[in-house]
Structures are given as structure tokens and as C-alpha cells.
């Protein structure tokens, strides 16, 4: 069974650029992290962990279908076979100089509709020449950091179980853009 499933430069540049252009007219907000361990169960700003900008797209956005199909394929091909009949609204993310999202797992998020996050899908929208530093890194079960960023080029796509620790490394210069989808379903048994 694979720890992640990846496609190199699979999504055409025209699609990535069209989405970036669309996002040019969208108001971004400061990213937050889920405070699932407190009695308030809310999202909070915690700049030492996450300090980038985000925007959520409404349900049934055209990019949602593209990303969800990657989740469905990887789920079967990698042998995970999670029950993932739904997905959350997609999230556009931007990381400028000094911005990052430190080690975390997406599984901590429990949804208003029945279920939980099971698969995380990330599409690299930026060209590698648009930024330095940054990138997506995963840890395996032994806490060993996998070598190098999984997202290097525009159009790269990666899918992994949402319980895996991962981070968006700090960008040194330029802007790194990506879009994220979480495939969801009933709680794991």
C-alpha cells in the first residue's frame, strides 16, 4: 500500500493559469487552524504555525470535479479503499515570503455533515520559477521526513491519507499557489 499517490505535471498549465487568474479577483483571508481540542471547537489564527492566505470556493466549482477525481482514482489505485462519497469546498492557498504551514494532519477536522476528512488532494498551481523555498513535505509512520518536496512543478498533483503529518515549507521569495480538496466520508471504524 502506498503512502501517497502522485502525478507529475499532469494538470495542463492552461488550467492552472485559468484558476490563478480567477483567484486574482477573489478576496483572500488570513489562514486559521482548527482549535479542535478546546471547548470552543473553533478556528483560530496561530501565526507561528500557519501564516498564509486562503480562500474557499463555493460548492460545485469547476476545479472541485477535477480534484475529486484524483482522490477517487488514488483511493483505489493505492489500495486505501476509504469510503469517501463527499468532499469539502476546495481551498485556494497562497504562500508569500516568510509564509508557511507547519507540521499538521488534516484528519483532526470533523465536519458538520456526517464524516471526517480521509484523503487530502493538492494541486500545485505555480511554476517552480515563481518562488523559492516552499513545497509540500510528508512524514511517514516512523516520523522520518520523506526526501524533498512532493510538489515541485506546475500541474503536479498529490493525494495522501489525511492522517499523515505534512507541512507547507516556508517560502523564501515569490509566491507559491496551490489548491486543496479533502475527500470525506463516514468516521473510520
Can you put this structure into words, describing what you see?
The protein is of the alpha+beta class and 189 residues long. The protein has a single domain, classed as q2cbj1_9rhob like domain (Jelly Rolls). Helix content is 14%, strand content 33%. The protein is built from two helices and 15 strands. It has helices spanning 13-23, 62-77, and strands at residues 5-7, 29-30, 33-35, 42-44, 53-56, 86-87, 91-95, 101-104, 116-124, 131-133, 136-138, 157-161, 166-168, 171-174, 176-185. Strands 1, 2, 5, 6, 7, 9, 12 and 15 form an eight-stranded antiparallel beta sheet that branches. Strands 8-13-11 form a three-stranded antiparallel beta sheet, with no helix packed on it. A two-stranded antiparallel sheet has the order 3-4. A hairpin with a 6-residue loop joins strand 3 (33-35) and strand 4 (42-44). The longest helix has 16 residues, at 62-77. The chain is globular, with a radius of gyration of 16 Å. Residues 37-41 have low confidence and may be disordered.
Layout of secondary structure:
Elements: E1 5-7, H1 13-23, E2 29-30, E3 33-35, E4 42-44, E5 53-56, H2 62-77, E6 86-87, E7 91-95, E8 101-104, E9 116-124, E10 131-133, E11 136-138, E12 157-161, E13 166-168, E14 171-174, E15 176-185
Antiparallel strand pairs: 1-12, 2-5, 3-4, 5-7, 6-15, 7-15, 8-13, 9-12, 9-15, 10-14, 11-13
| Computed Rg | 16 Å
Order of helices and strands: EHEEEEHEEEEEEEEEE
Strand content: 25-35%
Question: Number of helical segments?
Answer: 2
What overall geometry do the principal axes of the alpha carbons give? globular
Amino acid at each position: 500500500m502506498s503512502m501517497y499517490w502522485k502525478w507529475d505535471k499532469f494538470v495542463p498549465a492552461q488550467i492552472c493559469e485559468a484558476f490563478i487568474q480567477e483567484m486574482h479577483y477573489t478576496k483572500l483571508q488570513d489562514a486559521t487552524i482548527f482549535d479542535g481540542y478546546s471547548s470552543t471547537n473553533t478556528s483560530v489564527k496561530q501565526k507561528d504555525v500557519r501564516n498564509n492566505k486562503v480562500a474557499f470556493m463555493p460548492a460545485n466549482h469547476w476545479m472541485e470535479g477535477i480534484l475529486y477525481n484524483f482522490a477517487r482514482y488514488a483511493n483505489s489505485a493505492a489500495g486505501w479503499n476509504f469510503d469517501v462519497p463527499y468532499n469539502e469546498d476546495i481551498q485556494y492557498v497562497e504562500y508569500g515570503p516568510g509564509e508557511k504551514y507547519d507540521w499538521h494532519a488534516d484528519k483532526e477536522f470533523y465536519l458538520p455533515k456526517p464524516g471526517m476528512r480521509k484523503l487530502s488532494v493538492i494541486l500545485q498551481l505555480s511554476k517552480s520559477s515563481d518562488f523559492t523555498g516552499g513545497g509540500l513535505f510528508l512524514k511517514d509512520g516512523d516520523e522520518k521526513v520523506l526526501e524533498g518536496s512532493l510538489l515541485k512543478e506546475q500541474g503536479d498533483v498529490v493525494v495522501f491519507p489525511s492522517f499523515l503529518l505534512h507541512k507547507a515549507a516556508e517560502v523564501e521569495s515569490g509566491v507559491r499557489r496551490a489548491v486543496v480538496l479533502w475527500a470525506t466520508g463516514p468516521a473510520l471504524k
